Automatic annotation (TrEMBL):
Keyword Metal-binding part of the UniProt annotation: yes
Required cofactor names: Zn(2+)
Protein's UniProt name: M48 family metalloprotease
Residues of the Peptidase M48 domain: 72-247
EC number(s) on file: 3.4.24.-
A Gene Ontology molecular function term of the record: metallopeptidase activity
Length: 254
């Protein structure tokens, strides 16, 4: 009886693992804006819905929106200029730009579907071109469908871990592999967004070299005890600067 039960568990576990891999293969699609093949399990409309639903909570976590409407209008204008001058205008996403009241946390981020955020702490240190670099980077995250890709990857590893847990007690190992994979891909996302951000700046008439200054600001904000690259989801600022210089050389003259 115990042997039979063990065999059934192995069979179920293998079936779940096989299902995870089959589903992952079926979810492969080429991003029409970047040309990169990705594992995506949702539509652009679903990405937009997730972003709109999550936006109020994200704003609340950063003290709400900054109360100065003039500054918000400035952020909107820069963001709109980037969208209208780049491939972003061809996408189905609904781009909205939010200036957050948080005056301590230097950060910017994007939700699936086009909701982009920047904290006042970062905004207050930037000139217009540097703001364009930050917003262009966040627009690139949306176009690159990075959040959707991470959601699909997370779903894959959760299913795989469940299958491994049913078949044998190695779920923690599989979960660890999944986490490491997510960290590695996260660095790739940042570099892709940096490159696209440079392109968007050039297309919008901004000096792309100002993106280097943004990296210097982020480096200074992180301080001397910043997390080493191999332990972080983001590439080291120095490595990002080198890649940005390569992107500027690549796209200059276009």
């Amino acid at each position: 009886m115990r042997r039979g039960s063990w065999k059934i568990r192995i069979f179920i576990g293998l079936a779940i693992v096989a299902f995870a891999f089959i589903q992952r293969c079926n979810n492969k699609e080429e991003n029409p804006y970047t040309g990169r093949v990705q594992n995506i399990n949702m539509t652009p409309d679903q990405e937009i819905a997730i972003g709109l639903q999550s936006a109020p909570e994200m704003a609340q976590q950063h003290g709400g929106l900054y109360p100065d409407e003039r500054m918000q209008a400035f952020v909107d204008a820069v963001g709109k200029r980037l969208v209208q001058s780049s491939i972003a205008r061809e996408t189905p996403y609904q781009y909205e730009f939010h200036l957050l009241a948080d005056d301590r946390t230097i950060n910017a981020f994007a939700l699936p579907g086009g909701q982009c955020f920047i904290t006042y702490a970062l905004f207050s240190q930037l000139n217009e071109a540097q703001l364009a670099g930050v917003l262009g980077h966040e627009i690139a995250h949306v176009i690159g469908r990075h959040s959707a890709e991470r959601i699909a990857e997370s779903s894959f590893w959760q299913t795989l871990t469940m299958g491994a847990s049913v078949g044998a007690d190695i779920g923690n190992v599989v979960g660890s592999i999944g986490q490491n994979t997510l960290l590695k891909n996260g660095r790739g996302d940042e570099l892709e967004s940096d490159e696209l951000g440079v392109l968007f700046m050039i297309q919008s008439g901004y000096d792309p070299n100002e993106m280097i200054r943004v990296m210097e600001i982020l480096k200074a904000a992180a301080g001397p005890n910043r997390v080493p690259e191999f332990q972080s989801t983001h590439p080291d600022p120095e490595n990002r600067i080198e890649k940005i210089k390569e992107a500027i050389e690549k796209y200059s003259g276009r």
